Amino acid sequence: MIGYIEGKLLKKEDDRILLLASQVGYEILLPAFVMETLRSKEIGEELSFYIYYQQTERQPKPVLIGFNLEVEREFFKYFISVEGVGPLKAVQALTIPVREIARAIESKDVATLRRLKGIGNRTAQKIIASLEGKMDKFALIRKSEKKEAVVEHDLSRQVLDVLISQLGYKAAEAKLMILEAMKRNITISTPEELFEEVYRDEQNLT
To answer: What is the DSSP letter of 194?
Structure first.
């Protein structure tokens, strides 16, 4: 059984990756909250994952499900213990970080649990009934740092290139300008809006 894997990123899809380890390519399913942390990762980069290995008589084809932290895999095992929530459904459901789900369970926050893909009111109630009182550890998972991922996001990449290659800024300086702009205006959704926010700040400084 595979519990941990390190290797080179060969391919990224919406819900899975292909990882080359010891000359073997492993297809690994990733929950959305894990995939989000790979936004800035390029093909060929070295990655590592804690693996939940799924294989049953009804499903003889092995399925590998990846997590950044061992504690996230531990949470996953709790989550799939809930009646009606199997591994594949759980992978699709985990669209927000584990710490937020754990806190929602402990606070009986049905509304947050219903934000999970494929989780309705009845299943949310089952999750709370089954797991309440067991989630304190997972609610303390350190909040992931997303600043670098934001800079590498597609909407900011174009602005970063312009600042460096056309306007003469150093890479570190340009990244900082973009990060500050994103913090000031969290509604930015296009490169054009981001560039305008960066420009507006530079005007205020002059």
So the answer is: H
Rounded Cα distance, 74 and 128, in Å: 17
Confidence (pLDDT) at 104: 96
Give residue 158's pLDDT: 82
User: DSSP letter string over 77-141?
Assistant: HHHTTSTT--HHHHHHH--S-HHHHHHHHHTT-HHHHTTSTT--HHHHHHHHHHHTTS-HHHHTS
Q: Which residues contact 172 (CB under 8 A, 6 or more apart)?
A: none
Hey, what are 196's tokens? 């305008």
Position 152 scores a pLDDT of 45
The residue ranges of the chain whose pLDDT is under 50 are 146-152
Rounded Cα distance, 156 and 180, in Å:
12
Cα 31 from Cα 130, distance rounded (Å): 21
Residue 144 has what pLDDT? 62
Looking at the domain that runs over 4-139, which CATH code has it been given? 2.40.50.140
